[in-house]
Design a protein that fits this description.
With 195 residues, the chain is an alpha+beta fold. Helix content is 34%, strand content 15%. Bound molecules: iron/sulfur cluster (SF4) (2 copies).
């Protein structure tokens, strides 16, 4: 019985000494190194956490973080949405009645983006969308901390087209198509009447 009590105290003391040793050894602050540094996993001294957001780890150059889209360079081709494995890119294109501009690499723009949403809550950060984009306008940024209160706030909206504008653009295109069809019919009738 006495032995058991002594053993109990000895074990408790040993555990306490380990706890205290770690407590005091972790009092010092760690040097902040990027994960790519050869000594990153060798550092045993100091605290295991950093004082975020006052401190932060350097971001790896090839890191995949939040997506961003430069809409001025987007030709609304939908390739990024098609390649996305989790369907988190939602694009609605409207055909323009004529060329509406050029991207910075000289590609002609012929479609409006009535909607360009990316649900970052679903995104698995595979980066495929950035690879297929012909104008390289969808990119992964070094932004990783975009804390939000509601889940729906993680759906980033890149199009600034209003529903009214979208309706107007759709109408314009439909009207152009109708006029072209009417002109085509008139030309055919004229041809048939002349022959
Ligand atoms: S990174 Fe991958 S999952 Fe995320 S939007 Fe692009 S293709 Fe989809
Ligand atoms: S692949 Fe690029 S150009 Fe095409 S819709 Fe997506 S972001 Fe726009």
């Amino acid at each position: 019985m006495t032995n058991k009590i002594i053993n109990g105290f000895a074990t408790a003391l040993k555990g306490l000494s380990i706890t205290l040793r770690h407590l005091f050894s972790s009092h010092g602050k760690r040097n902040i190194l990027p994960a790519s540094d050869a000594n990153y996993f060798k550092r045993l001294e100091g605290t295991n956490t950093i004082q975020y957001p006052h401190q932060s780890l350097p971001i790896p150059e090839v890191g995949r973080y939040q997506l961003d889209v430069e809409m001025d360079d987007c030709i609304v081709c939908d390739l990024c949405a098609k390649v996305c494995p989790v369907d988190c890119i939602d694009i609605e294109a409207i055909k323009a009645t004529e060329a509406i501009g050029q991207t910075s690499d000289g590609t002609t723009k012929r479609l409006y983006a009535a909607k360009f949403d990316i649900d970052m809550a679903k995104c698995m950060y595979c980066g495929l969308c950035t690879i297929v984009c012909p104008t390289e306008c969808i990119v992964m940024t070094n932004q990783y901390d975009r804390s939000v209160v509601g889940l729906n706030e993680l759906t980033y909206k890149f199009s600034d087209m209003t529903p009214e504008d979208a309706t107007q653009k759709r109408r314009e295109f439909e009207q152009q198509q109708a006029e072209r069809q009417a002109a085509k019919m008139a030309a055919m009738q004229k041809k048939e009447g002349g022959s």
